[in-house]
User: Which sequence fits this backbone?
């Protein structure tokens, strides 16, 4: 077979994303987001140690609508990464490899992470 008639590998224009591939990519993205979001925690802790003016600046950011959006996104990333990590623990134990189970556990991960995020925020708001 010559180089010109050689079949091409699947590429993004013909590849149909599946739940498993989206979940895998999402797990990596949420892991990176958690690492970056941890910088917000470090900023908050350093500001708390630095004094009232620095702490007020960070609290002003966190208390803004954008800060709440960032915290909500961070919470979702945390819950998704947790749920998907538990899913992977079952896989590491050799369970849940049947195609139907893979898809069910994938959707449970998505719904569970949404539910846990909303629950965490409702509990947090109620505690105010």
Assistant:
């Amino acid at each position: 077979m010559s180089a010109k008639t050689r079949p091409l590998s699947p590429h993004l224009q013909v590849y149909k994303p599946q739940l498993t591939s989206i979940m895998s990519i999402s797990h990596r993205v949420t892991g990176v987001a958690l690492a970056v979001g941890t910088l917000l925690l470090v900023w908050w802790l350093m500001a708390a140690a630095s004094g009232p003016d620095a702490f007020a600046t960070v609290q002003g950011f966190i208390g803004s609508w954008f800060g709440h959006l960032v915290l909500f996104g961070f919470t979702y990333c945390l819950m998704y990464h947790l749920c998907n990590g538990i899913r992977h623990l079952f896989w590491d134990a050799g369970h849940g490899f049947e195609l139907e189970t893979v898809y069910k556990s994938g959707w449970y991960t998505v719904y569970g992470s949404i539910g846990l995020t909303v629950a965490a925020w409702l509990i947090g708001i109620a505690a105010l």
